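Changelog-adjacent note: as of this version, every example in the card shows the full chain rather than a window. The one below runs 280 residues end to end.
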Amino acid sequence: MTGCCVSNDGTGLRLLTARTTSSSSVTWYAAAIARRRNDPLGLVTYLEQLVDREGSGVDATLSLIQGLIRLGRTEEARGRAEKVPAEALEAREMLYLSALWLELDEPYAALPLALRAYRMASDDFEIARGFAIAVLNSKTAPAACDQVAADTHVVLRASDGSALEYVVFSEATTTRLNNEISLEAASQLGLVGLRVGDSFVQNPGAFFEKPFTVEKIQSALTYAFQDVIANYGKRFPTAPFFVTGFTLKTDPPTVADFQPLIDSAHDRVRNRDVGSMFIV
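Full-length structure tokens:
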């Protein structure tokens, strides 16, 4: 089967080479020609044939959704996006679908997909970068979290200054983030439902039990975004950052350090405020 993904310049589709049936191969070739000729209507027509008549997979479907958006046929694009089986997607496909939802001005559909893609491939610098840019482009403020629940991050502090932190997810992925635990495990530990200021005892009943106080609760999305931004250079020292020539001038970074990144993430001024909300 032939694949499709966002091109490097972010303006179109890049066809990838793979096995396919002869019929689908001809249609893919025709779609590629339409793209090279800057014929979006022709491109969409061929992609519709691949998806609706020839049963091509998610690659063609995602490319078709993007083509429909380019033509302004957003309701058709939205309808097809809703039918994509997100749970069966690979990380890059999931991030691609997230980007399409953002183009459809549906950030609350986009961001959970971007986060899940990152959780699936947090060691891939392109996925990490794509996730962070999706957050910046979402034009949404971080979700308020007043208690430990699914998809939250909690920091607990002991009187000696030591800390515990957990990021709680209701659904597992193939890999785990640092400090990640399941909702079931959080419930068994007695974390679920705790609020800022509440007490928590580690290893209760043991001679080495230790009391903690809940210091901070935020969404898992905010935690993951901040983690990517703060540690991107350390984890991917040879990978390009979000903006050419962009460097962090302070440790830990401040909002001012990220202003060039925020400015470049989107051409709408509102993103400056939104980006600042996610960076503390």
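Structural remarks: Confidence is low (pLDDT under 50) at residues 1-21, 243-253, 265-280.
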